[in-house]
Amino acid sequence: MTGLWLMKSEPHVYAYADLVADGRTHWDGVRNYQARNMMRDQMKEGDLVLYYHSNTKPPHVAGVAKVVREGYPDHTALDSTSKYFDPKATADNPRWSMVDLEPVVECPTAVSLETIKSDPLFEGMPLIRRGQRLSIQPVEDVHFRRVLMLAGLDADDVMGA
DNA sequence: GCCAACGTTGGC
DNA sequence: GCCAACGTTGGC
């Protein structure tokens, strides 16, 4: 069973196009325990990710990515020159985790938050819950497939029938 | 362990 | 730029 996730990124910081250009990235800088725990304990190689652009107009799902390396220490926590430096992190206890991602496919049509909110099928999805700030969220199969459909993608192609 | 102050996220 | 909703910090 493939795990399904949504991960937020501000496109002016690191957009889906940047992931495509880089071919692969470390998802570093997450400093929230809930999000860390999901990366450290639950995300598995091959899991699929909706790549969500936050803090932009309009906010939207831009593409699909996949997990290519499971949770391991986020070394930026130990780097005093990094903006993600955490003085409480040590080599023995790095505190924070990250995963590696690769792009799968860009959405032919970006799926806006408004589109998701206006579709009753998405009722109950954490993304549209008021005050939901978590930058990594689990996504239900039915929601994942619907986003792909709205993006103009074939869910069976992307997810494997 | 409580809780006020503060910082961050992220839609609007 | 505003502000609601949280999460974190630190004094007590």
Structural class: alpha+beta
How many beta-strand segments?
6
List segments where confidence is low: pLDDT < 50 over at least 5 consecutive residues: none
End-to-end distance? 12 Å
| Approximate helicity band | 25-40%
- Rg, please? 16 Å
Shape: globular
Q: How do the helices and strands follow one another from N- to C-terminus?
A: EHHEHEEEHEHH
* Cross-sheet strand order for the largest sheet: 2-5-4-3-1-6
Largest sheet composition: 6 strands, mixed
Overview features:
single chain; about 160 residues; alpha+beta; about 30% strand; 6 strands; globular
Draw up the topology in text.
Layout (H helix, E strand, L loop, with lengths): L3 E6 L1 H4 L1 H7 L2 E2 L6 H10 L5 E6 L6 E14 L23 E16 H6 L17 E3 L2 H10 L4 H5 L2
Parallel strand pairs: 1-3
Antiparallel strand pairs: 1-6, 2-5, 3-4, 4-5
The protein binds a DNA duplex (12 and 12 nucleotides) through loops.
